[in-house]
Amino acid sequence: MNPNPARRAALSVGVAVLVVAGCSVTDRKVSGTASAPANAVTPTTSTSAVARLADPATLQSLLGSPTEVAGIVGVDMTPGPISKKPFSNLSTEPARCLEAVMPGQGSSEFYMRTGFASQSLDGAAPHVKVLQVVASFASAADAESSYTIASTSWPSCQDAEVTLTAGREVAVQKLGRIETTDSIMSIPVTQADGNSTASCQHSFTAKRNVIIDVRVCAPNVGNAGRELVSKIAANLT
């Protein structure tokens, strides 16, 4: 039976992620080494930054606070619990587009990670949802490799219509064109069914030994995802 429109809308903006997503027993790994496309932007890391690697034990302190997130989306935000492992109960068709649609998947982006922290936040207005993720690696080079994997795989999902499944919930997502600004890669995601007016921006970057992966959904979301990534990255300075 198809879910009703309200439940489809909830899934489409990320609410169902924390309801149905569990902890990975094993992580999917990628064989070989990915190479960046000619137009990929790879974050650079200075020698001094390498000496100041983020501690996996303090990752959750890097996440945007409810006040910081509210300042970006324009409404009060209620934070959910912190999760320490990637999500594993989501799937997409086509399968290659899962990581482009949703942050925090137990997939190639998190290969060889040393730490992980994620949190969802609900807005005090309809269709305002945020999912923010940070993951640490043993080295800055490993984090940059994760960024390379994302920048190689996301482009194949531009302008694609993707079916997202979480348990018995199904939602159709429409992906737009990737934009990269200041080494932050962003892709718009909108709902292709139901009556939701929400749109989302999924943004991703690497800084030092950390990747930052967020999805911000709101009416007229604009570049809120990129702003949140920049805010979290500032906590690594």
Sheet/helix structural class: alpha+beta
Number of domains: 1
User: Shape from CA axes?
Assistant: globular
- Could you name the CATH homologous superfamily? PknH-like extracellular domain
- How far is the N terminus from the C terminus? 49 Å
Helix-strand pattern: HHHHEEHEEHEEEEEEH
Q: What would you say the CATH architecture is? A: 3-Layer(aba) Sandwich
Q: Kindly provide the name of the CATH class.
A: Alpha Beta
Say what the CATH topology is.
Protein Transport Mog1p, Chain A
Number of strands: 10
| Cα-atom radius of gyration | 16 Å
Beta-strand residue percentage = 25-35%
How many strands, what sense, and barrel or not for the largest sheet?
10 strands, antiparallel
Mean pLDDT: 81
Structural overview:
This protein is α+β, with helices and mostly antiparallel strands and about 240 residues long. It has a single domain (about 5-20, about 60-235), classed as PknH-like extracellular domain (Protein Transport Mog1p, Chain A, 3-Layer(aba) Sandwich). The chain is about 25% helix and about 30% strand. It contains 7 helices and 10 strands. The protein has helices at about 5-10, 15-20, 45-50, 65-75, 100, 140-155, 225-235, and strands at about 75-85, 90-95, 115-125, 130-135, 160-165, 170-175, 180, 185-190, 200-205, 210-220. Strand 9 (about 200-205) and strand 10 (about 210-220) form a beta hairpin. The protein is globular. The N and C termini lie far apart (about 50 Å). The model is unreliable at about 1-10, about 10-40 and about 45-50 (pLDDT under 50).
